[in-house]
Amino acid sequence: MGQLITEQQKTDFENDGIVKLTNAIDDKLLAKLIECFEWSIANPGPIAVGKPEGENIHFVDNGNPKAYKMYGELVLESNFAVIAAELWNSEYVGFFAEEIFLKQGKSLPTYWHQDTVYSPWGGEHWANFWIPLVEMSKQQSIRIVRGSHKGVMYDGTTFNPKDPTEPLWGEAGNFPRLPDITADLEADPSSWDIAGFDVSPGDLVILHPHSIHAGGKNDDTLTVRRNLVLRFFGDKSHYSDHLPDAPGMYDHKPLPAAGGGFLRDGDPYRPASMIQVSP
Protein backbone atom coordinates (compact mmCIF):
# COMPACT_ATOMS: atom_id res chain seq x y z
CA MET A 1 0.00 0.00 0.00
CA GLY A 2 1.34 3.43 -0.90
CA GLN A 3 1.39 6.41 1.40
CA LEU A 4 -2.07 7.88 2.04
CA ILE A 5 -0.80 11.21 3.43
CA THR A 6 1.59 13.52 1.59
CA GLU A 7 4.32 15.52 3.30
CA GLN A 8 2.44 18.71 2.38
CA GLN A 9 -0.72 17.43 4.08
CA LYS A 10 1.29 16.61 7.20
CA THR A 11 2.72 20.11 7.16
CA ASP A 12 -0.70 21.69 6.65
CA PHE A 13 -2.15 19.79 9.60
CA GLU A 14 0.84 20.65 11.78
CA ASN A 15 0.74 24.36 10.92
CA ASP A 16 -2.97 25.04 10.33
CA GLY A 17 -4.68 22.39 12.46
CA ILE A 18 -6.82 21.23 9.54
CA VAL A 19 -6.41 19.39 6.25
CA LYS A 20 -8.76 18.05 3.58
CA LEU A 21 -8.26 14.67 1.91
CA THR A 22 -10.28 14.71 -1.31
CA ASN A 23 -12.00 11.42 -2.25
CA ALA A 24 -10.34 9.60 0.66
CA ILE A 25 -13.46 7.51 1.33
CA ASP A 26 -14.55 5.01 -1.31
CA ASP A 27 -18.16 4.13 -2.10
CA LYS A 28 -18.15 0.94 -0.02
CA LEU A 29 -16.89 2.68 3.11
CA LEU A 30 -19.19 5.65 2.52
CA ALA A 31 -22.18 3.29 2.38
CA LYS A 32 -21.13 1.76 5.73
CA LEU A 33 -20.74 5.21 7.27
CA ILE A 34 -24.22 6.18 6.11
CA GLU A 35 -25.62 2.93 7.53
CA CYS A 36 -24.01 3.68 10.90
CA PHE A 37 -25.23 7.28 10.76
CA GLU A 38 -28.82 6.11 10.17
CA TRP A 39 -28.53 3.69 13.09
CA SER A 40 -27.36 6.54 15.33
CA ILE A 41 -30.27 8.72 14.26
CA ALA A 42 -32.71 5.91 15.12
CA ASN A 43 -30.98 5.05 18.42
CA PRO A 44 -29.99 8.24 20.28
CA GLY A 45 -27.56 7.95 23.17
CA PRO A 46 -27.88 9.27 26.73
CA ILE A 47 -26.44 12.74 26.00
CA ALA A 48 -28.10 13.35 22.61
CA VAL A 49 -29.32 16.92 22.11
CA GLY A 50 -32.48 17.63 20.13
CA LYS A 51 -34.78 15.24 18.31
CA PRO A 52 -34.12 13.76 14.86
CA GLU A 53 -37.64 14.28 13.58
CA GLY A 54 -39.89 17.22 12.71
CA GLU A 55 -39.76 20.10 10.27
CA ASN A 56 -36.86 21.93 11.93
CA ILE A 57 -34.14 19.65 13.27
CA HIS A 58 -30.93 20.35 15.19
CA PHE A 59 -29.81 16.95 16.45
CA VAL A 60 -26.40 16.09 17.90
CA ASP A 61 -25.36 12.80 19.48
CA ASN A 62 -21.96 12.22 21.00
CA GLY A 63 -20.23 9.07 22.22
CA ASN A 64 -23.23 6.75 22.43
CA PRO A 65 -21.97 3.75 24.48
CA LYS A 66 -24.22 1.39 22.50
CA ALA A 67 -22.64 2.59 19.24
CA TYR A 68 -18.97 2.11 20.16
CA LYS A 69 -18.67 -1.51 19.01
CA MET A 70 -20.36 -0.74 15.69
CA TYR A 71 -18.15 2.25 14.91
CA GLY A 72 -15.07 0.45 16.23
CA GLU A 73 -15.64 -2.41 13.81
CA LEU A 74 -16.11 0.06 10.95
CA VAL A 75 -12.84 1.80 11.85
CA LEU A 76 -10.97 -1.53 11.97
CA GLU A 77 -12.25 -2.38 8.48
CA SER A 78 -11.30 1.04 7.10
CA ASN A 79 -8.01 2.80 6.38
CA PHE A 80 -8.67 5.52 8.97
CA ALA A 81 -6.05 4.19 11.40
CA VAL A 82 -3.43 4.19 8.64
CA ILE A 83 -4.32 7.78 7.76
CA ALA A 84 -4.01 8.88 11.40
CA ALA A 85 -0.74 7.00 11.90
CA GLU A 86 0.79 8.58 8.81
CA LEU A 87 -0.52 12.03 9.67
CA TRP A 88 1.15 11.99 13.09
CA ASN A 89 4.02 9.55 12.42
CA SER A 90 2.51 7.58 15.31
CA GLU A 91 2.78 3.88 16.08
CA TYR A 92 -0.26 3.89 18.37
CA VAL A 93 -3.72 4.90 17.16
CA GLY A 94 -6.74 4.63 19.44
CA PHE A 95 -10.39 5.15 18.57
CA PHE A 96 -12.24 7.50 20.93
CA ALA A 97 -15.88 7.72 19.77
CA GLU A 98 -18.31 9.16 17.23
CA GLU A 99 -20.37 12.33 17.01
CA ILE A 100 -23.44 12.77 14.80
CA PHE A 101 -24.92 15.97 13.33
CA LEU A 102 -28.30 16.25 11.61
CA LYS A 103 -29.68 19.69 10.74
CA GLN A 104 -32.81 20.35 8.71
CA GLY A 105 -35.07 23.32 8.06
CA LYS A 106 -34.34 26.27 10.34
CA SER A 107 -31.24 25.15 12.21
CA LEU A 108 -28.56 26.89 14.21
CA PRO A 109 -24.83 26.87 13.56
CA THR A 110 -22.54 25.03 15.93
CA TYR A 111 -20.91 27.98 17.67
CA TRP A 112 -17.16 28.54 17.83
CA HIS A 113 -15.49 26.40 20.49
CA GLN A 114 -12.61 24.04 21.31
CA ASP A 115 -13.33 20.41 22.18
CA THR A 116 -10.44 20.25 24.65
CA VAL A 117 -12.13 22.47 27.23
CA TYR A 118 -14.90 19.88 27.56
CA SER A 119 -12.69 16.78 27.90
CA PRO A 120 -9.46 15.77 29.70
CA TRP A 121 -7.38 15.63 26.53
CA GLY A 122 -3.86 16.91 26.03
CA GLY A 123 -1.13 16.54 23.44
CA GLU A 124 -0.45 16.82 19.74
CA HIS A 125 -1.90 13.51 18.59
CA TRP A 126 -5.62 14.09 18.54
CA ALA A 127 -7.77 14.28 15.44
CA ASN A 128 -11.41 14.74 14.54
CA PHE A 129 -12.17 12.95 11.27
CA TRP A 130 -15.00 15.17 10.02
CA ILE A 131 -16.99 13.31 7.35
CA PRO A 132 -19.63 15.01 5.14
CA LEU A 133 -22.56 12.89 3.96
CA VAL A 134 -23.94 15.67 1.73
CA GLU A 135 -22.30 18.34 -0.39
CA MET A 136 -21.54 21.53 1.55
CA SER A 137 -19.84 24.85 0.95
CA LYS A 138 -17.05 26.14 3.17
CA GLN A 139 -19.58 28.24 5.10
CA GLN A 140 -21.91 25.27 5.59
CA SER A 141 -19.31 22.68 6.60
CA ILE A 142 -16.56 23.06 9.23
CA ARG A 143 -14.24 26.04 9.72
CA ILE A 144 -11.40 26.70 12.13
CA VAL A 145 -9.24 29.60 13.22
CA ARG A 146 -6.01 28.71 11.47
CA GLY A 147 -3.23 27.74 13.90
CA SER A 148 -5.44 27.98 17.01
CA HIS A 149 -4.65 24.35 17.93
CA LYS A 150 -1.32 25.67 19.21
CA GLY A 151 -2.83 28.56 21.16
CA VAL A 152 -4.83 29.54 24.21
CA MET A 153 -7.47 27.30 25.72
CA TYR A 154 -10.59 29.42 26.09
CA ASP A 155 -13.58 28.72 28.28
CA GLY A 156 -16.21 26.57 26.66
CA THR A 157 -19.54 27.83 25.44
CA THR A 158 -22.94 26.75 26.71
CA PHE A 159 -24.14 27.00 23.07
CA ASN A 160 -26.71 29.60 24.09
CA PRO A 161 -28.13 31.18 20.88
CA LYS A 162 -28.67 34.46 22.75
CA ASP A 163 -25.01 34.54 23.86
CA PRO A 164 -22.75 32.18 21.85
CA THR A 165 -19.76 32.96 24.09
CA GLU A 166 -21.56 32.42 27.42
CA PRO A 167 -18.89 30.71 29.58
CA LEU A 168 -19.30 27.04 30.35
CA TRP A 169 -17.06 26.97 33.44
CA GLY A 170 -17.02 30.61 34.45
CA GLU A 171 -15.55 31.20 37.91
CA ALA A 172 -15.10 27.46 38.44
CA GLY A 173 -12.43 27.42 35.75
CA ASN A 174 -9.36 29.43 34.91
CA PHE A 175 -9.99 30.09 31.23
CA PRO A 176 -10.38 33.36 29.33
CA ARG A 177 -13.77 33.93 27.77
CA LEU A 178 -14.18 33.02 24.11
CA PRO A 179 -13.96 35.98 21.75
CA ASP A 180 -17.08 36.63 19.68
CA ILE A 181 -15.58 35.46 16.41
CA THR A 182 -18.88 35.57 14.53
CA ALA A 183 -19.42 39.23 15.43
CA ASP A 184 -15.82 40.05 14.61
CA LEU A 185 -16.08 38.44 11.18
CA GLU A 186 -19.35 40.22 10.42
CA ALA A 187 -17.69 43.54 11.23
CA ASP A 188 -14.42 42.70 9.46
CA PRO A 189 -14.08 39.46 7.43
CA SER A 190 -10.29 39.67 7.74
CA SER A 191 -10.30 39.94 11.55
CA TRP A 192 -9.60 36.20 11.95
CA ASP A 193 -7.62 33.86 9.71
CA ILE A 194 -10.26 31.24 8.90
CA ALA A 195 -9.59 27.92 7.18
CA GLY A 196 -12.23 25.64 5.68
CA PHE A 197 -13.25 23.80 2.54
CA ASP A 198 -16.07 23.06 0.15
CA VAL A 199 -16.77 19.34 0.64
CA SER A 200 -18.57 16.43 -0.99
CA PRO A 201 -19.37 12.88 0.17
CA GLY A 202 -16.14 10.91 -0.06
CA ASP A 203 -14.02 13.77 1.24
CA LEU A 204 -12.40 13.65 4.66
CA VAL A 205 -11.58 16.75 6.70
CA ILE A 206 -9.21 16.23 9.64
CA LEU A 207 -8.87 18.86 12.36
CA HIS A 208 -7.19 19.03 15.74
CA PRO A 209 -9.88 19.25 18.47
CA HIS A 210 -8.01 22.08 20.22
CA SER A 211 -8.61 24.23 17.14
CA ILE A 212 -11.26 26.88 17.60
CA HIS A 213 -13.90 25.61 15.19
CA ALA A 214 -17.51 26.11 14.17
CA GLY A 215 -20.05 24.16 12.15
CA GLY A 216 -22.42 25.64 9.60
CA LYS A 217 -26.18 25.64 9.38
CA ASN A 218 -28.84 25.11 6.75
CA ASP A 219 -29.65 27.79 4.23
CA ASP A 220 -31.53 28.13 0.93
CA THR A 221 -29.01 25.88 -0.83
CA LEU A 222 -28.77 23.21 1.89
CA THR A 223 -32.07 21.80 3.14
CA VAL A 224 -30.52 18.89 5.07
CA ARG A 225 -27.04 18.92 6.64
CA ARG A 226 -25.65 15.48 7.58
CA ASN A 227 -22.18 14.67 8.85
CA LEU A 228 -20.42 12.55 11.40
CA VAL A 229 -17.13 12.80 13.28
CA LEU A 230 -14.81 9.99 14.35
CA ARG A 231 -12.14 10.86 16.93
CA PHE A 232 -8.68 9.34 17.24
CA PHE A 233 -5.63 9.70 19.52
CA GLY A 234 -2.00 8.66 19.09
CA ASP A 235 1.46 8.35 20.66
CA LYS A 236 1.61 11.96 21.81
CA SER A 237 -1.78 12.09 23.51
CA HIS A 238 -2.15 12.28 27.27
CA TYR A 239 -4.70 12.59 30.01
CA SER A 240 -4.90 16.22 31.17
CA ASP A 241 -6.29 17.29 34.52
CA HIS A 242 -7.18 20.82 33.38
CA LEU A 243 -10.95 20.67 33.86
CA PRO A 244 -12.62 22.18 36.95
CA ASP A 245 -14.23 19.95 39.53
CA ALA A 246 -17.80 21.07 38.91
CA PRO A 247 -21.11 19.20 38.60
CA GLY A 248 -22.92 18.81 35.29
CA MET A 249 -22.59 17.04 31.94
CA TYR A 250 -18.83 17.66 31.80
CA ASP A 251 -18.06 16.44 35.32
CA HIS A 252 -15.78 13.57 34.25
CA LYS A 253 -15.45 10.57 36.52
CA PRO A 254 -12.05 8.90 37.12
CA LEU A 255 -11.06 7.10 33.92
CA PRO A 256 -9.85 3.49 34.24
CA ALA A 257 -6.51 2.95 32.49
CA ALA A 258 -5.78 0.08 30.12
CA GLY A 259 -2.91 -1.05 32.38
CA GLY A 260 -4.97 -0.91 35.57
CA GLY A 261 -5.76 1.86 38.03
CA PHE A 262 -6.93 5.24 36.78
CA LEU A 263 -5.43 7.76 34.41
CA ARG A 264 -3.55 10.61 36.09
CA ASP A 265 -2.44 13.98 34.76
CA GLY A 266 0.23 13.47 32.10
CA ASP A 267 -0.35 9.74 31.64
CA PRO A 268 -0.49 8.48 28.05
CA TYR A 269 -4.14 8.50 27.02
CA ARG A 270 -4.90 4.78 27.06
CA PRO A 271 -8.36 4.23 28.59
CA ALA A 272 -9.42 0.67 29.31
CA SER A 273 -12.72 1.24 27.50
CA MET A 274 -11.22 2.26 24.13
CA ILE A 275 -9.67 0.10 21.47
CA GLN A 276 -6.33 0.33 19.72
CA VAL A 277 -6.85 0.43 15.97
CA SER A 278 -3.22 0.88 14.89
CA PRO A 279 -2.46 -0.59 11.48
Overview of this protein structure:
By secondary structure, this protein is α+β, with helices and mostly antiparallel strands. Helix content is 19%, strand content 23%. The protein has helices spanning 7-16, 27-42, 68-77, 80-88, 181-187; strands at 18-21, 57-62, 93-104, 110-113, 121-123, 126-132, 142-145, 194-196, 204-207, 213-215, 224-234, 237-239. The strands form 3 sheets. Strands 1-9-6-11-3-2 form a 6-stranded antiparallel beta sheet. It has a 4-stranded antiparallel beta sheet with strand order 4-10-7-8, with no helix packed on it. The chain is globular, with a radius of gyration of 18 Å. The model has no long low-confidence stretch (mean pLDDT 95).
Class by SSE composition = alpha+beta
Segments where pLDDT lies below 50 for 5+ residues? none
- Can you count the beta strands? 12
Terminal residue distance: 12 Å
Strand order of the biggest β-sheet: 1-9-6-11-3-2
Mean pLDDT: 95
Overall radius of gyration? 18 Å
Q: What is the molecular shape?
A: globular
How many strands, which pairing sense, and closed or not: the largest β-sheet? 6 strands, antiparallel
The amount of helix comes to 10-25%
Please write the string of helix (H) and strand (E) elements: HEHEHHEEEEEHEEEEE
Report the portion of residues in β strands: 15-25%
